[in-house]
Amino acid sequence: MANYLELKAQAEAFAAQAEEARLAELQTVLDEVRMRVSAYGLTVEQVFGPEASCDVKEETAVAEPDSLAPAATVKTALNPAAAWPFPTGSRP
């Protein structure tokens, strides 16, 4: 019977082999998925569900340049509590 260290070494070797096989097959799988998505005209929502489309929209949204964004501590009509000294930003 193999001891713990021998079994652990075998497990690590199997994990390495599995990763090599995954990487070898990855491009083929990606090519097939892309082909089928294109052939069937699938959308992000159809493939990953409605929650995924929200993630994509957030990632592709254009960020406002820092020069145009108001400073976080500036008291404005949109953020009147910003200048308040308490860490919660709310008044008592």
UniProtKB/TrEMBL annotation:
<feature type="coiled-coil region">
    <location>
        <begin position="4"/>
        <end position="36"/>
    </location>
</feature>
<keyword id="KW-0175">Coiled coil</keyword>
<protein>
    <submittedName>
        <fullName>H-NS histone family protein</fullName>
    </submittedName>
</protein>
